[in-house]
Automatic annotation (TrEMBL):
Top-level taxon in the UniProt lineage: Bacteria
SUPFAM superfamilies per record: HAD-like
Originating organism: Actinoplanes ianthinogenes
Name recorded for this polypeptide: HAD family hydrolase
Amino acid sequence: MGGLVIFDLDDTLLRTAAATRAARRTVLASLFPGCDAARALAVWRRTTLLYSDQQLTELLRVLAALLGTPLPTGADLDGLAAGYHAEVIDRVTVEPRVVAAARRLRDDGHALAIVSNGDDAVQRAKIERSGLGDLAPAERVVICDGIRIPRKPDPEGLRPLLHDAEGRPGTERRAARAVLVGDRTTDVLTARLAGIPVVRLRTRTADLERGSGLSRTARPDAECSPAGVYQAIRALL
């Protein structure tokens, strides 16, 4: 049996950035009609340093303060949040080169897992909506929601995966046979804390939201475009 390959979800297995921008524009048009959308989107990106999009109601209150525009009286923030997540789920698409590499690795005998930050129901809906439900077994899909499981870069979500099939703690050799693949500094730090190597994808959206100030310091073991991910992973396993 080969090693374990742990994939991030958003902007790794899935192309999420365009879907996120479109959903944010929908929310901005509803709450702040006529606003400078480019500026508002830029401020929103920066606001994710305080709140993720899974904490949308809190994020929108801070965003309104930063834009200097009060929220409309009686605004249904919970309804907007539900609509936002539904639009993102509907718009996400797969990253075909990374998904093809994952399937090829599975055919080579490697085990696959998915570890993602976010709301459990939303992230699992993305996986099913995108046809990735068969990529990894349910017990190897871990959603770090910040409630049951701490969000990355906390490595807690990886720990159950770094055990062997009988549930015994993974040996040092087993840990060396696991690799994490993701697009952000968060993923690099998660792998470092878990003691496993990491492949970082070079994507246009990487670190626009979180951790950009750390990207020069948190060095991955390998860095590649989506087209090169299979070779990069094989070199580390």
